[in-house]
Write a structure and sequence with these properties.
The chain is α/β, with parallel strands linked by helices and 450 residues long. It has 3 domains: 123 residues, Methylthiotransferase, N-terminal domain (Rossmann fold, 3-Layer(aba) Sandwich), CATH 3.40.50.12160; 245 residues, tm_1862 like domain (pyruvate-formate lyase- activating enzyme, Alpha-Beta Horseshoe), CATH 3.80.30.20; 63 residues, Nucleic acid-binding proteins (OB fold (Dihydrolipoamide Acetyltransferase, E2P)). Helix content is 35%, strand content 22%. The protein has 14 helices and 20 strands. The strands form 4 sheets. Strands 7-8-11-12-13-14-15 form a 7-stranded mixed β-sheet. It is globular.
């Protein structure tokens, strides 16, 4: 198939934060006259926005680059962007012959410069564009730092991380935390609302650190207060990725007092045994965790809390893992996920090695998931007979599919409704059934007519 001169094909891998960067690059290309195409064979520019967080993500990124490099035609250019290239640079081009350009995650806004440089001259060697500058407000080329999907949008409020977690490569990739100007975020929220967005999902590596570099205390709480004032007609505002120890009383008060801010919080805890957390260089005060969860549930009895944990971290004993199992049974998270420890060279956990055998990691992962599935089912069953507002996102074979306030996109469950409903609408649904992850229901008005 003949390719069009000014077209691009962009593959976005990894997390929702990466997707925001991909959409920002796409905005710049479209503004410059490029058209997005689904088929790589029709594109003049091929871009893979890579993920380099853990080994499996790196492998996926390399596979995707190799696939595009293998099928690349004369006149096409292939650019590797994102986390993998920021961390490994030249090694990516060495692993994937056929890559023409390397663009780091911190300078996604330079995509046009890289494309122009590649297309105007011959380049026997890949061009590298890996400056160290972090993304800062006015350096964002007037893009909306959001990824819109249906009636929802991820909005990035900061990038990078200053936390010392021993297992995490994000500071090596993204650098320290850099908050976006509050006025810019508020303006983008208004623009997204005007475009029909009904759910705004705030993203950062650590949302609770928002504003620290701007000299703010309780910056996330202040931002939420300002959002509630600036976009009072925006239906839902969701907060992701809170850091233990920084969920303050003010933040809890703001969340509980605004009808727009969903009673939902994603707070990755990573473990529940103080010794494991200490080796992870994570907050290890479990008394704080219990007290904070109690505060949130006292102020917001219906709050849905999600967390994430690592099993098989170096030195994790059976006793330490059993403490995590007991914690899951006791705390009863609405949602919880687990990852098996992935050894990451360059992180401060590197000297610990990866001593726990894969079969032990797998066994602990399965035990974790079995416990949490049972807890999640019981929590879901408590909603049978209740009415939840559901944001409708699709329809298939007689069933509408949506999410309640309890469900963040991609990682949580769904609500299946036995009727065709308008996509993009928020509809009251009477819950009639529960599974480990999902709920079923009927429109609440149906129930009233029975």
């Amino acid at each position: 198939m003949t390719k069009v001169k000014n077209t691009f094909h962009l593959v976005s891998l990894g997390c929702s934060k990466n997707t925001v960067d991909s959409d920002s690059m796409a905005q710049l290309l479209v503004r410059d006259g490029y058209q997005s195409v689904d088929k790589p064979s029709r594109a003049s520019v091929l871009i893979v926005n890579t993920c380099g967080f853990i080994g499996s993500a790196r492998d996926e990124s390399i596979r995707e680059l190799r696939k595009l490099a293998k099928s690349k035609r004369s006149g096409q250019v292939l650019i590797a962007a994102g986390c993998l290239t920021q961390r490994y640079g030249m090694d990516v081009a060495q692993q994937v012959p056929g890559v023409d350009g390397i663009l780091g995650t911190r300078r996604w806004m330079d995509i046009l410069q890289v494309v122009r440089d590649l297309r105007k001259t011959s380049h026997p060697q890949p061009l590298y564009h890996l400056p160290e500058a972090a993304t800062v407000g006015t350096d964002e080329a007037d893009t909306v730092r959001a990824n819109v999907f249906g009636a929802a949008a991820y909005l990035k409020v900061a990038d990078g991380c200053r936390r010392p977690c021993a297992f995490c490569a994000i500071p090596l990739i993204k650098g320290t935390a850099v908050s976006r100007p509050m006025d810019t975020i508020l303006d983008e929220a208004r623009r997204l609302r005007d475009a029909g967005v009904r759910e705004l999902i705030l993203l950062a590596q650590d949302t609770t650190d928002y504003g620290h570099d701007l000299g703010m205390k309780d910056g996330l709480a202040i931002l939420l207060e300002k959002l509630a004032t600036s976009v009072p007609d925006l239906d839902w505002i969701r907060v992701m990725y809170a850091y233990p120890g920084y969920v303050t009383d003010r933040l809890i008060d703001v969340m509980s007092s605004s009808k727009q801010i969903l009673h939902y919080l994603d707070m990755p805890l990573q473990h529940a045994h103080p010794k494991t957390l200490y080796r992870m260089k994570r907050p290890s005060n479990m008394e704080w965790v219990h007290k904070t969860l109690e505060k949130m549930r006292a102020k917001m009895p219906d709050i849905a809390i999600r967390s994430t944990f690592i099993v098989g971290y170096p030195g994790e004993t059976e006793e330490e893992f059993r403490a995590l199992e007991e914690f899951l049974r006791d705390v009863r998270f609405d949602r919880a996920g687990a990852f098996q420890f992935s050894f990451e060279p360059g992180t401060s956990s590197e000297p610990l090695g990866d001593p726990i055998p894969p079969e032990v990691k797998q066994e602990r992962y399965e035990r974790f998931m079995e416990i949490q599935q049972g807890v999640s089912l019981q929590v879901n069953q408590s909603y049978v007979g209740k009415t939840l507002d559901v944001l409708v996102e699709g329809y298939n074979d007689g069933v509408s599919i949506g999410r309640s306030y309890r469900d963040a996109p991609e990682i949580d469950g769904m609500v299946f409704v036995e009727e065709k409903l308008e996509v993009g609408e928020i509809v009251p649904v009477r819950i009639t059934g529960a599974m480990a992850y999902d709920l079923t229901g009927v429109p609440a008005r149906q129930v009233l007519t029975i």
